[in-house]
Amino acid sequence: MKKIKPIIHNIHDRLFKGTFQVPQTVADCISYFFPPDLAEQLNTDELELDPANYISGALREFYADVVYRTVLKGKGKPAEVTVVLLFEHKSAPDARLHRQLLQYLQAIWEKDQHEGRELSIIIPIIFYQGKKPWVKKPFAESFKDLPPGAARFIPNFDYILIAVHQTPDEILLQLSEFSPLGGMMLLMKKVKNTVFTRLHYASFFNFFGNKTEFKQIRRNFAEYLYRLSPLNPLELNELADKNLSPDIKAEVMTQFETMLYKERTAGKAEGKAEGKAEGKAEERVLLTRKLVERLLIKKILSDEEITDALEVDLSEVYRIKAALIEQGRLNPEV
After folding, report:
1. Percentages of the chain per state (helix, strand, coil), in multiples of 5
2. Which has fewest Cβ within 10 Å: 43, 145, 209, 264?
3. Could you please report the per-residue DSSP string of 152-179?
4. Are 284 and 253 in contact (CB under 8 A)?
5. Which tens digits make up the pLDDT trace of 210-243?
């Protein structure tokens, strides 16, 4: 059966869901944000992404859930007790939360029964990005004028709340040293803060090694920074050049270039006045040339790779290369 991918409407959800495709993100989340007595019982070596869609129909368009399965430690059979970790991203407090979670719980348990499994233990995790304080309330408080003694008939279950803006910067900076989770949370919290971005630019990317599964996350991070930071593309690129290792720098700068060319192809940035759009277009042309020059001087990519990555004519790359050689900034190839 062909899998149906859930629709993710905004860049925040794309960043969240893309980062949580890597099991390391989930393992680090368990280690840093779960209650210790629960975290020590979960086998993070057995984490497996569950691709199933548990919300059907039109509702799927509004929810960006991520579901992982694992097992408890110390059990005789690997599948004896299954634990489902349900991650849900929220940008604002949601009065419908318990009802939404109940839909998830029921759908997961129905799948367990259909596939002949024992019912799973389900741990909901709410990943909250908004600035307004989130106050956890029991589901019973959703019912007006609940008579005495009636609360016991209302489903009662808890969830783990991870609030990005309520997590201290020091914790996120520490986490970003080794985990994509830290980089993602820093971006969500600080992307509009130009002072922080200039001081801690590397913290958005510095956990990355050369693992293949991190490449798409790296591109997502670069896109998020490019689209939401008040800093202009040229400064973002210069920060990448100064603060990132060569391999990471190449991918981030190439992602910036790709996005610039997509915008140029579209004619002008959406929502900009015509005069401002023309100014931005000139800025992008300048940035494009500077990035191509850096890629050529540092020999990060071949001429053909620059052409493919940036969607620029090979003749333009040759023209820039010739100018660099004439200026003495690039040695002629032997």
Report:
1. 55, 10, 35
2. 145
3. GGS-----EEEEGGGS-HHHHHHHHTT-
4. no
5. 566 788 888 899 999 998 999 988 888 889 989 9
